[in-house]
Amino acid sequence: MPLALYDTWSRTVRPFTSIHAGVVGMYCCGPTVYDYAHIGNLRTYVFEDVLRRALIRNGYEVRHVVNITDVGHLTSDADEGEDKMERGSRRAGESAWAIAQRYTEAFFADWRALHLLEPTVWCRATDHITEQIGFIGELERAGYVYRTSDGLYFDTSKQEDYGFLARLDRAGLQAGKRVAVGNKKNMTDFALWKFSAAGIKRQMEWDSPWGRGFPGWHIECSAMSAKYLGNWFDLHCGGEDHIAVHHSNEIAQTQAAHGTRLANFWMHGHFLTLDANAKMSKSNGDFIRLQTLQNNGIDALAYRYLCLTAHYRSKLHFSWASLDAAQTALNRLRQLYSAGPDGGRIDPDFAARFDAEVNDDLNLPRALAVLWELVKSPLPPANVRATLDSFDLVLGLGLSDWKPVAFEIPEDISKLLKEREQARAEREWSKADDIRDTLNARGWRVEDSKEGQRLIGITTDTTDIGNE
Ligand code: AMP
Ligand code: ZN
Prior knowledge:
Blueprint: E1 4-7, E2 12-15, E3 23-28, H1 39-57, E4 61-68, H2 84-92, H3 96-113, E5 121-124, H4 129-141, E6 145-147, E7 151-154, H5 170-176, E8 190-195, E9 213-215, H6 217-229, E10 232-239, H7 243-258, E11 262-269, E12 272-273, H8 290-295, H9 300-308, E13 316-317, H10 320-339, H11 348-359, H12 364-376, H13 381-395, H14 411-425, H15 429-441, E14 444-449, E15 452-457, E16 462-464
Parallel strand pairs: 3-4, 3-10, 4-5, 10-11, 12-13
Antiparallel strand pairs: 1-2, 6-7, 7-8, 8-9, 14-15, 15-16
Helix pairs in contact: 2-3, 4-6, 6-7, 9-10, 10-13, 11-12, 11-13, 12-13, 14-15
Bound molecules: adenosine monophosphate and zinc ion.
């Protein structure tokens, strides 16, 4: 079954073919590095990584570009408020440059921990100021730019189909006017270049033909994708929040300057949510990082597994219970994988079914169901292992890198476990709960399942102890 992907532009799942034979250009909007990435952000990068791996599996070479937004992302989508970097700098009492450096490095660490393939190009907005100024110049010559007291703006009224990606109701928006328009002519107009305020020295500012200042957020993606992938490439991705503003504006800019809608396919990962309908936001201050999970004894790759259990076009509601279940599933998978010897053959039927699910708009939940059928099948363990190896090229769970960590269970802990098993056998539930609390306090977590108790070292790895 050939690869088919959902394209937000056409709102359909359609067959994917590359513009240039054998090679795919793919641009993904990267992090704004004023703070750590939260696990919601990371869900989007996992989706993009699976997409890239699926393309590779379909025989494509992928040129993957990811930007780092280290200037220009304002605290409000309406292009008001301040630059997130300058605000982050004030909050931490450090320079904006130091903050960008620190959070970029932390982001790279998360990236590696999640087994995300290294992009072909990482590009920083602050390394591409010349390209952005050049792009704004082109827009100005094409007649799309006007000047206000605080910057240069893109005139969206000049484009008949502005906002098509989001199916934006422009007339309705204009009439509603709930968002402040400020000096802008139209509500949907957006900043291309912001002037440094008179008398205030910004940390990040540059000279331009229009005055000292800094680029708007959207122009960096149009300028950098053009530089590394050209003006018409295969895939552009991001989280669903980018559809209405950021990606609509990238398209508007490239359309105005070069006459294309930038990418043939626009793909969006849906949000990870914390509470019903609540999104996880960095600006809420308090958020869950990958490190938070790791501090709680969860593997980064268990989080990756959790992401694979939901289709990228549905919301994923985060809970610690589902994360624990993902960790348990991953551990089991690792054990089953390790049980098989090398030298097996890939099972063609399972491989074909797995590929069909992946190619059906990345249906990873169903691909995982095929995987579990495989490991429970009567196939020789060596063939199960070989087939899992081939699946893992898409899943990225690092099954072949995993080494069982044999950890010793101290004598007193194993005594407590036996007591608890006894208490459970005698249906003394409150005693069993007390013992579980004691174990928790000592850094061990115990879970009950049909197969009996299962001990988890909170800062180490997992082992099965069974109750046979
Ligand atoms: P930012 O660092 O805020 O620019 O966002 C980085 C990426 O994470 C973008 O592709 C966003 O669309 C995406 N994103 C933001 N919040 C979430 C969320 N709760 N779940 C999934 N993706 C998100
Ligand atoms: Zn972008």
